[in-house]
Design goal:
The strands form four sheets. The chain has a six-stranded antiparallel β-sheet with strand order 3-6-11-12-14-13. By secondary structure, it is α+β, with helices and mostly antiparallel strands. The chain is built from eleven helices and 14 strands. The longest helix is centred in the last third of the chain and has 24 residues.
Length: about 300
């Protein structure tokens, strides 16, 4: 397997690159050391599809606290000539209960901003999903610190005289100690629901298939009921990519005040609505209801 070179913009705006240190992973993560060919398969498969996900070291305690970044600069701790922070270069010893994971983002197009403007900028218009329009208006009067915290969930790509906007939340995908016999744990930050998608709704996180494991800032997404020993890449493609798309559709309905009406019309609840969106035979009925109210005008 060829070397995997990663690149990331760090806090000071500099682009840094490094080669994933497979030997460090093997000496730190038990299943990777016992099955180096399995590690090769996982890394190769993951980086073919998700080039901007980064292999990271986390611990069980960090996951419980919801704080899995470098204590000095809050960037990722990765495998680069051992174990070190990608930004400040701090070198770490192998911790107790180490786990291999990936941190990255999955962009989902939600619309455009006019006149070379920015999301949340006064005097420019947003077009596309109702969720984008709602967030654009919500961001305009926000204090800068709060605005910047929310803007990190979005990607903006300039294109001619408009800017494409993508909803791109941080995703934390963690291997279990007994991989591949058990499924991975995949998390989003609590802000994903509390401040971005569904703030102001009367529902709990579990209604949106996200579950708290204590009082930390990470919520575990519903993954698999029956585990079939697939790769992390497939788990993300099959479960997380579709979920983000479904979350945006439900946020579209919530942002225009039609979520309750659609749920009642279908005779279901918000938790079960995800099955309507993704299941043949029911998604057609959901689409009919959705299209009554949602107009995507970009």
């Amino acid at each position: 397997m060829a070397d995997i070179v990663q690149r990331k913009k760090v806090g000071r705006g500099e682009m840094v690159s490094w080669t994933v240190d497979k030997s460090a992973i093997q000496s730190t993560i038990s299943w990777a050391g016992e099955k180096p060919s399995l590690l090769d398969e996982e890394l190769d498969d993951m980086y073919r599809s998700f080039k901007h996900f980064y292999a990271v070291l986390v611990t069980r305690d960090q996951i419980s606290r919801g704080d899995i970044f470098c204590p000095r600069c809050k960037d990722i701790i990765t495998f680069d000539r051992g174990i070190r922070c990608v930004s400040c270069g701090t070198i770490f010893k192998t911790p107790a209960n180490p786990k291999l994971g990936f941190i990255g983002r999955i962009p989902n197009w939600i619309g455009v901003i006019d006149t070379n403007g920015r999301l949340g900028q006064r005097g420019v218009d947003a077009h596309g999903h109702p969720f984008l329009k709602f967030m654009h208006k919500k961001l305009i009067p926000m204090p800068d610190a709060e605005k910047q915290n929310i803007l990190r969930y979005f990607l903006a790509l300039p294109e001619e005289n408009r800017t494409k906007v993508f909803f791109a939340p941080p995703i934390y995908a963690i291997y279990p100690d007994n991989w591949p016999r058990n499924k991975p744990d995949i998390y989003v930050e609590r802000e994903y629901f509390d401040k971005i998608l569904f703030k102001g709704t009367r529902y709990s996180h579990s209604s949106f298939h996200a579950y708290s494991e204590g009082g930390n800032r990470l919520l575990r997404l519903c993954n698999y009921v029956n585990w079939h020993r697939i790769t992390m890449r497939v788990a993300i493609e099959q479960r997380i990519v579709p979920k983000i798309m479904m979350d945006v559709m439900i946020a579209d309905l919530a942002s225009i005040g039609k979520l309750e009406k659609v749920v009642r019309s279908l005779g279901t609840d918000v938790h079960s609505l995800y099955n309507w969106i993704g299941r043949s035979g029911r998604k057609e009925r959901f689409s009919k209801e959705f299209n009554k109210y949602v107009r995507i005008d970009a």
